[in-house]
Design goal:
With 309 residues, the chain is α+β, with helices and mostly antiparallel strands. The chain has 10 helices and 11 strands. It has 2 domains: 167 residues, Ribosomal Protein S5, domain 2 (2-Layer Sandwich), CATH 3.30.230.10; 115 residues, Alpha-Beta Plaits. Strands 1, 2, 3, 4, 5, 6 and 11 form a 7-stranded mixed β-sheet that branches. α1 packs parallel to α2.
């Protein structure tokens, strides 16, 4: 019976799951072409890293149908929107609509991943919400189905269902596993600059992209086992749109390239990163970037995506 156990349209559940959602960097990002719908097709190597947002998600009551009731709180206050403009909120609603479930959902998001930085924090948080809803509602969706749901929320969301090291094609949502990066220290530097992805792509000169040298994924794939090394051929094509307009970012990238085997802009920025051998002492370098007024994170690679803890 459809309404069995429901009292005045509600069935108490009061279950909570806690999750962590990793950031990512792009070890390579090539822009292949602009599609007729305005989106850009890319070829990128995603790498999850051990910089996490933390989420606590509760299913308070189940409803027999209709729209869910979604509550969202964020700490620190102002670190991300706490309304329907937050991708977490949209992910919960999207999950309910697509799977036919509903209820009162409470989301608390503790932000550590900088926003508008090219680190994928919003997409990772949305992936965590999909995973939590799948668990709380007992819908039993396989990861491939969750990735498909995530793709309609954002191009990076499917990667954060999967995590680790992966090749992204299309708009970034067509994923192929790659040999995992298991070593290295990622020094992520986030200056007090925020960049919007759409604006960065709008400034990209596709003529220059088409006529520039390309990197071969088949060459890079076996090199991931020995990552990082100075012969790494990956690059970020979006630097050509960002760095000429942002002298501070240009200086940060150049400084990291002086000292790190691999260094570049992450995604569309504004975070930049360098990857170092684990044996390298980075205390002085961390201090140098922090003294320059930047937010700095020194983390390792992460083999998973968003996950229940």
């Amino acid at each position: 019976m459809k309404d069995a156990g429901f009292i005045k349209g509600r069935k108490p559940v009061n279950q909570t799951v806690k999750l962590r959602a990793p950031a990512k960097v792009n070890l390579h990002l090539e822009v292949v072409r602009q599609r007729h719908d305005g989106y850009h097709e890319i070829e990128t190597i995603f790498q999850a890293v051990q910089l996490f947002d933390h989420l606590s998600i509760s299913l308070l009551d189940r409803f027999p149908g209709g729209e869910p009731e979604i509550g969202l709180t964020v700490t620190p206050a102002g670190a991300a929107p706490d309304d329907h403009s937050n991708l977490c909120w949209e992910a919960a609603r999207h999950f309910c609509r697509e799977t036919g479930v509903s209820g009162e959902i409470s989301i608390h998001l503790e932000k550590s991943i900088p926003t508008e930085a090219g680190l994928g924090g919003g997409s990772s948080d949305a992936a965590a919400v999909l995973i939590a809803c799948n668990h709380l509602f007992g819908t039993g969706l396989e990861p491939a189905k969750l990735e498909k749901l995530g793709a309609s929320l954002g191009a990076d969301v499917p990667f954060f269902i999967r995590g680790g090291t992966a090749l992204g094609r299309g708009i970034g949502s067509i994923l192929t596993p790659l040999p995992p990066v298991a070593t290295g220290r990622f020094l992520i530097v986030k200056p007090p600059i925020k960049l919007r992805t759409a604006s960065v792509y709008a400034n990209l000169n596709m003529g220059l992209t088409v006529n520039s040298a390309a990197a071969n994924i088949r060459v890079m794939k076996p090199m991931l086992v020995r990552f990082p090394q100075r012969t790494w051929p990956g690059f970020n094509r979006l630097e050509s749109a960002v760095l000429p307009q942002q002298p501070l970012l240009q200086r940060l990238v150049h400084r990291l390239q002086e000292v790190a085997p691999v260094a570049m802009l992450s995604g569309s920025g504004s975070a930049v990163f360098g990857v170092f051998p684990e044996s390298r002492d980075l205390d002085d370098l961390v201090t140098e970037f922090e003294d320059g007024g930047n937010e700095v994170h020194l983390v390792g690679p992460h083999a998973l995506g968003a996950e229940i803890r």
